[in-house]
Every structure is written in structure tokens, then in C-alpha cells.
């Protein structure tokens, strides 16, 4: 057993402390807070004034550090999962974007292989796979290729689910609920244990609520690639922000959404907003490094935002710890931001064993300094070397003109 003491910890969405955790067998064996610590023996690890939280969970991440999860090699998987863990991201839901149906089984097989080969190592946990497409709207395609999009018909679902790896690792699927067969597909997928997310959708609010009736519980990058919020037609954002059946995925790079809009999401969907990056292959690399993503070139611009050659936004070029720093720098409450990518993220997947400083939960932990950089990281109770972020974000500032945020 190892004991860890910190001046402040994140418990149930709020900071408290001091506190001490006991870790045994890779899980949290006890949590002692405040006055109950009086007379307790010295901890094996004393973090001083540092803040201790559960490890970050990124539920929408397409890749990082030069690896695209859709076709990454085993060596690339090891590099990216290790790099993410060193930045405090201790669990990920690799996202595979729209591709021909026949190719998706192979992508999921590689996710399964990476999960198994890196389990127990100095690497982020692979929670399962998030399939973003191909059952999405060409009208809200974003960076996805419309020629690869199909309707979620029973026949297409049969093809998708035929591969054994798909049934084993598919945890979340994004679809547009206004498409033909979408509600029946939602019911079938939910019955299979898959979380259905509304995204890349031109749905009306009524169609979004119908998706919730069918079992949808997640939103993919609210406000991005979806019918916008209107004062008479609430669209996708208005529906998911007011329908408490939905968790609300929210990109926190400060560019896909202005921080003031993130604040709106966190206020309207309190306890349901989930911070994600939507990071792509270029995340963590120098700007203007051109790579392939989704069948076409992409690179980070001067602010670290992934763009196509024509300027279309493709995804974030940051790691989630940088998203935390940007949101806190913009004035958002740090405990709320951190809870959104730990406790709330785990709850959205029904994972009571992750994202919490609670007895029985996996000891995936991050100690943060006063500037919100991870200084120590544990995965399953085993410490790994933390790495200070090196995102090329020198061009990013808050909408209020705050000082540049540097990783």
C-alpha cells in the first residue's frame, strides 16, 4: 500500500483538503480528508500544496503526436498513449471518423490490439472506440468526406457490427438523428450497449428530443457542425443544453468555441458538460507540420488549430491539459473544468471505476502545480514521468485579450 497526501483534492466536483489517499492493487483503498487526518502518519508521497485530481479522460480524440488512430501502427499507438499519459490524460476514447464501412472493422481491430498491448504500461487507458460517422449529415459535414457518408439503415448497421472487433470495442457512435432509419438505429445501438451521440446534424430541436426518446445520451462537440441555436428554432445546441438526458461534449481549445460560449454550456448543462479536445494527428507537434488525416492533408495554423489546405477547421492541435489551462485562464472555475473531463466524463460512459477519487476506483491520478501543469501522474497506481506541455499555442489569447497562454 502507498499513501499520497495533497494540500487540495477534487472531490464530487469541488476542491477540498488537505487529503490523503491510500492506493493498493492499482485502486484507491481509502480517502481521508480534513480534520480526519489529525494524527495520521506521514504519507509515503507528500505533494505539499499541489492539487490532486483524477486523471483526465478525453472522450473525443482522433490522434496526437503524429498518430492518427484510424490507421496508427503499434509503435505509434505506444508513443501517443504514453505521450498523453505523461500530460495527465490517463484514459481516452479513440475517435475514428467517417470512412467506408468496409474499412472500419480493421480500424477497430487496431484499437483493440492497442488497448491490449498497452494495458498496464506507462500509457493512457483505451476505454473503447468512438465512431464519428459515417451516419451523419452532408449538410453539416465539417471535415468529413460526404462521399463516404451513408444512412444508418439496418443493412449498413449489419455491415458495421459484423466485425468481431467492432462489437468488442465500439463504445460511442455519433449520428444525425434526422436521417432515415436513425431512430431505429439508435434503439438498436443502445440495446447493444453503445452510447449514441447527436452530432454533425442538421436536426431540429424536436428531432433531437426524439433521439433522446430513442436512447441517445451524448452530444458530439456542441455548436460545431450542427444546426445552430436560434431564438425560435433551438436547433441541436438548444435541445441538448435544455434536455437533461444529454451529456454535452464541448471542445475546450478556446477556438472551436469562444470561452464565453463554453461558460454558457457549463452553466446551462451544469454537471453534464464534458471537456474534450477533438485533437487530431497534429496535436503536440510544431505548427505547419503537414500530415494526412481523413484522407486529406492537415496542419496546425499559427495558433495551433488544425486546418485543411482551404482553411477548413479540422480539429484541435492541443492535448487536454492545455485545454484545462486555457479555460481556467479565460476565467472558468477550475474545479468545474476539471470535473468535466474526469467525473462527468466517466459518468457519461457509466464508468464508476474511473474519474473519481473514491474507494474502489482505479488510481489514475494527476498532481497539478499552481499554473495547472501536471507535475506527477499515476495510472493504475503506477507513477509515470510527467511532461510539461509543449503545444505550439503562442497565437492563442482569450476573447477578452488576456495574456497569451503558453504550454
From TrEMBL:
Coiled-coil stretches: none
Annotated Amidohydrolase-related domain residues: 51-377
Pfam family, any one: Amidohydro_1
Keyword Kinase: no
Cofactor note: Binds 1 divalent metal cation per subunit.
Binding-site residues for substrate, renumbered to this chain: 143, 224-225, 232, 256, 313-315
Active site (catalytic residues): 278
Database matches in InterPro entries: Amidohydro-rel, GlcNAc_6-P_deAcase, Metal-dep_hydrolase_composite, Metal_Hydrolase
Keyword Hydrolase: yes
EC number: 3.5.1.25
Swiss-Prot/TrEMBL cofactor(s): a divalent metal cation
GO BP annotation list: N-acetylglucosamine catabolic process
SUPFAM superfamilies per UniProt: Composite domain of metallo-dependent hydrolases (SSF51338), Metallo-dependent hydrolases (SSF51556)
Binding site for Zn(2+): 132, 200, 221
GO MF annotation list: metal ion binding; N-acetylglucosamine-6-phosphate deacetylase activity
Sorted UniProt keywords: Carbohydrate metabolism, Hydrolase, Metal-binding
Matches recorded under PANTHER family: N-ACETYLGLUCOSAMINE-6-PHOSPHATE DEACETYLASE
Family: Belongs to the metallo-dependent hydrolases superfamily. NagA family.
Protein name: N-acetylglucosamine-6-phosphate deacetylase
Organism of provenance: Miniimonas arenae
Source taxonomy: Bacteria, Bacillati, Actinomycetota, Actinomycetes, Micrococcales
Amino acid at each position: 500500500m502507498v499513501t499520497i497526501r495533497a494540500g487540495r483534492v477534487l472531490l464530487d466536483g469541488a476542491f477540498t483538503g488537505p487529503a490523503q489517499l491510500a492506493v493498493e492493487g492499482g485502486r484507491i483503498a481509502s480517502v481521508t480528508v480534513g480534520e480526519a487526518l489529525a494524527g495520521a502518519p506521514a504519507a509515503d508521497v507528500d505533494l505539499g500544496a499541489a492539487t490532486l485530481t483524477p486523471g483526465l479522460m478525453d472522450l473525443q480524440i482522433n490522434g496526437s503526436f503524429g498518430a492518427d488512430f484510424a490507421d496508427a501502427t503499434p509503435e505509434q499507438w505506444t508513443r501517443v498513449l504514453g505521450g498523453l499519459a505523461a500530460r495527465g490524460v490517463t484514459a481516452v476514447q479513440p475517435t475514428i471518423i467517417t470512412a467506408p464501412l468496409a474499412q472500419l472493422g480493421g480500424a477497430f481491430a487496431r484499437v483493440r490490439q492497442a488497448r491490449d498491448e498497452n494495458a498496464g504500461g506507462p500509457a493512457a487507458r483505451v476505454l473503447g472506440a468512438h465512431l464519428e460517422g459515417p451516419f451523419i449529415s452532408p449538410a453539416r459535414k465539417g471535415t468529413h468526406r460526404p462521399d463516404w457518408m451513408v444512412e444508418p439503415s439496418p443493412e449498413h448497421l449489419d455491415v458495421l457490427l459484423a466485425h468481431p472487433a467492432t462489437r468488442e470495442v465500439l463504445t460511442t457512435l455519433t449520428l444525425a438523428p434526422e436521417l432515415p432509419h436513425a431512430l431505429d438505429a439508435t434503439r438498436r445501438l443502445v440495446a447493444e450497449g453503445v452510447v449514441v451521440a447527436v452530432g454533425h446534424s442538421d436536426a431540429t430541436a424536436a428531432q433531437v428530443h426524439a433521439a433522446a426518446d430513442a436512447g441517445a445520451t451524448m452530444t458530439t462537440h456542441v455548436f460545431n457542425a450542427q444546426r445552430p441555436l436560434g431564438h425560435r428554432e433551438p436547433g441541436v445546441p438548444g435541445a441538448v443544453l435544455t434536455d437533461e438526458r444529454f451529456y454535452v461534449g464541448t471542445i475546450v481549445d478556446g477556438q472551436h468555441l469562444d470561452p464565453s460560449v463554453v461558460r454558457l454550456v457549463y452553466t446551462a448543462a451544469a454537471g453534464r458538460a464534458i471537456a474534450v479536445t477533438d485533437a487530431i494527428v497534429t496535436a503536440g507537434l510544431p505548427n505547419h507540420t503537414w500530415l494526412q488525416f481523413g484522407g486529406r492533408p492537415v496542419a496546425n495554423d499559427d495558433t495551433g488549430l488544425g486546418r485543411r489546405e482551404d482553411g477548413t477547421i479540422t480539429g484541435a492541435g492541443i492535448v487536454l491539459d492545455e485545454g484545462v489551462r486555457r479555460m481556467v485562464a479565460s476565467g472558468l472555475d477550475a474545479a468545474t473544468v476539471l470535473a468535466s473531463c474526469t467525473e462527468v466524463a466517466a459518468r457519461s460512459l457509466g464508468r464508476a471505476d474511473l474519474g473519481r477519487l473514491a474507494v474502489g476506483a482505479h488510481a489514475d491520478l494527476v498532481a497539478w502545480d499552481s499554473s495547472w501543469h501536471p507535475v506527477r501522474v499515476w495510472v493504475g497506481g503506477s507513477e509515470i514521468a510527467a511532461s510539461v506541455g509543449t503545444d505550439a499555442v503562442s497565437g492563442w489569447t482569450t476573447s477578452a485579450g488576456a495574456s497569451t497562454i503558453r504550454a
